[in-house]
Amino acid sequence: MRYSEYFLPTTREIPADAELASHIYCLRAGLIRKVASGIYIFLPLGMKVLQKIETIIRQEMNAKGAQEVLMPVLQPKELWEKSGRWTEYGPEMMRLRDRHERDFCLGPTHEELITSTVDAEIFSYKKLPLHLYQIQVKFRDEIRPRFGLLRGREFIMKDGYCFCRNQKELEVIYQQMYEAYARVLERCGLDYAVVEAESGIIGGEVSHEFVVLADAGESELVLCPGCGYASNAELAHFSWTTIPDREDMKEAALVETAGIKTIEALAHYLSVEPKKTIKTMLVQEGKNIFAILIRGDRELSLAKSARHLRRSIGLVEQDTLNAHPEIRMGYVGPFGLNAIPILADLELKESQNMVIGANRDNFHMVNANVGRDFQVDEWGDFTYPVWGDKCSKCANELEFKRGIEVGHIFQLGTKYSKSLGATFIDEDGQSQNFVMGCFGIGVTRLLASIIEQKHDERGIIWPVSVAPFQVIILLLNPTNNRQREAAEHLYEIFQKHGLEVLLDDRDERAGVKFTDAELLGIPFICLIGNKLEREGLVEVKIRESGDSFELPLEGVVFRIQEIMGNQERGIQVDKGDTF
RNA sequence: CGGGAUGUAGCGCAGCUUGGUUAGCGCGCAGCGUUCGGGACGCUGAGGUCGUGGGUUCAAAUCCCACCAUCCCGACCA
Q1: Residue A219: nearest nucleotide (C-alpha to C1')
Q2: Cα distance between residue A62 and residue A52, in whole Å
Q3: Longest dimension (CA), chain A
Q4: A168 Cβ contact list (under 8 Å, min separation 6)
Q5: Which UniProt keywords apply (predicted)?
């Protein structure tokens, strides 16, 4: 491709809308342009990268026997009413009506459609397992789209659904997908973690998230350097470090703490460490309130709480509190809470002489002790790990990182096949619900994550595997015939060897070309300039390392292929079916 | 949806507090000339419903009201 003819608008200024590197560089390097909040057009360069990523995904999916389909974005209401999700899904689902007043939605996901399709065609266990996937635009009317492609409303997703005879068969496919996902991320050159993502409400499901490590990421991860344990911070297991010294139980007493409603203020006022206090968190499901006691210096994990209670809960709301005059906000404690169940974090089981809310305005209790001064209905694990906490499996100190969730694999079981009545006939002639799995990769999000992890202050640093071009030739003096001819010749050589090459033949100053080449992040930058004129040498710069070397024209392609080959071998790619 | 902020040329911004002639600057864009290995210089030029609607006023980019859009912080997710 000749740069002079290519639709590739780069910008010098940082767009006012963007904050994250991936967002800024997607715009500056001419990959995308915004159409509306969370909605983007992909320009030719962005399109190329997208296709590269999709190809990698296709190869890995096909290699595991998954078959590609394409489903519509527009889906009829009836389908969603069958699964109950037309009402369940909420405002995130974009609904619209056609000229005949029929209701549709823009598909936020495709479980309903795929399940009903398979159900209509597959009747026998002999046809199972079946694994279908698609790479398609999905639409979710996000409450708050942000960070460019990282959280769009319209985004491209690869989603796969497998239909199995039983749990065992599902587990085999699940394992295969685990491997396939890992390979996709490796081939994209990414540093990532796989974390268990247990689902709170519906027990028994197995689920893993694939998270690209990046400081800008929205999910917080806990990693153990010792045993490799990885988890969402909000669900992470850990063992607490501070085992309290044994002390004698002191006499409990009420102290006046007028106007003191936070742990910090309380600890300061009473001159105790925050960890010697207990805070009482209130959560609710519908109108039901639960009190959860945790150590004052800890944070409540709603995810863990939800899992423990097996309910979908949120922090208590003012409306709900109005019906409970016995609750004294700011001084809540496990006293006189009537019918409200009191749960407590296991960490408090051995605690002694704690400060705790008295559930009486302007009073706390000091030297409170479990069992003597207050009772607990249920013990559980309700808090996040913090710096210094140890791995519950191997006792190493846990590490904290942030990441971007790009993939999620799920053992669905019969949730959708049941609600949609999708069945097959098994070996015994009995009707059974399909046992399903679903597997998603956010393709556009993956693109953004790569930039988020692979960039510097000058621009993107594409891994060769997804780079829109492997090589860019900078013709520094387009008016110089010898240099022009050399550049054209080199351009042909690259093409003949199957490399994707961008020839910067624009009538621009050298500085512009250098800056753009680095912004675009093309892995190999070949300079045709004075060096060529004087010594017949091409200067090759490697974008990632900044290293450079000089070679005669004819040798360049082999050297580049050699370097690329070495990188590929590091990943050990065996190509699956391609088409 | 709650909290914060912004909307002026393709992009980045000033002007608004204290209303007053043809609304500015930088980059980019077009033409000509000089330049040409890290975003050159000179000259000429094109480009604006000042987010939209209403109001106040002799007069509104500027003051008031409403709405819309966009971004950032919270609850959701690939």
Answers
A1: B77
A2: 15
A3: 95
A4: none
A5: Aminoacyl-tRNA synthetase, ATP-binding, Cytoplasm, Ligase, Nucleotide-binding, Protein biosynthesis
pTM: 0.89
Measured CA to CA, the distance from residue A187 to residue A568 in angstroms comes to 8
Give the residue with greater pLDDT, A72 vs A227.
A72
**Of A86, A68, A89, which Cα lies nearest the Cα of A77?**
A86
Residues whose CB is less than 8 angstroms from the CB of residue A343 and which lie 6 or more positions away in sequence, other chains included: A290, A291, A292, A293, A305, A308, A309, A376, A377, A378, A379, A380, A382
Q: What is the pLDDT of residue A2?
A: 96
Cα separation, A117 vs A59, whole angstroms:
24
- From CA A240, how far away is CA A378, in angstroms rounded? 19
The number of beta carbons lying within 10 Å of the beta carbon of residue A535 is 10
Distance B29 C1' – A51 CA (angstroms): 32
Lowest mean pLDDT among A165-179, A200-214, A413-427: A200-214
Residues in a beta bridge with A540: A526, A549
CA distance A199 to A440: 16
From the CA of A17 to the C1' of B56: give the distance in Å: 34
CATH class, range A46-71+110-229+400-452: alpha beta
User: Could you tell me the distance in Å between the CA of residue A463 and the C1' of nucleotide B62?
Assistant: 51
pLDDT at position A315: 79
Beta strand ranges found along A3-73 (DSSP E): 32-36, 39-42, 67-68
Q: Which nucleotides along chain B are within 7 A of a protein C-beta?
A: 1-2, 11-13, 26-28, 35-40, 69-78
Domain boundaries, chain A: 46-71+110-229+400-452, 253-380, 469-571
Closest by CA to A91, choosing from A101, A106, A102, A81, is A106
The ipTM estimated for the assembled molecules is 0.93
**A445/A443 Cα distance (integer angstroms):** 5
CATH of A253-380, one of 2.40.440.10, 3.30.70.20, 1.20.1540.10, 3.90.960.10: 3.90.960.10
Segment A257-270 shows an average pLDDT of: 82
- Cα–Cα–Cα angle for A33, A36, A37, rounded to 5 degrees: 105
* Nucleotide whose C1' lies closest to the alpha carbon of residue A509: B36
CA of A16 and C1' of B58: distance in angstroms? 39
Helix or strand holding residue A392 (H, E): none
Fold category of A469-571 in CATH: Rossmann fold (3.40.50)
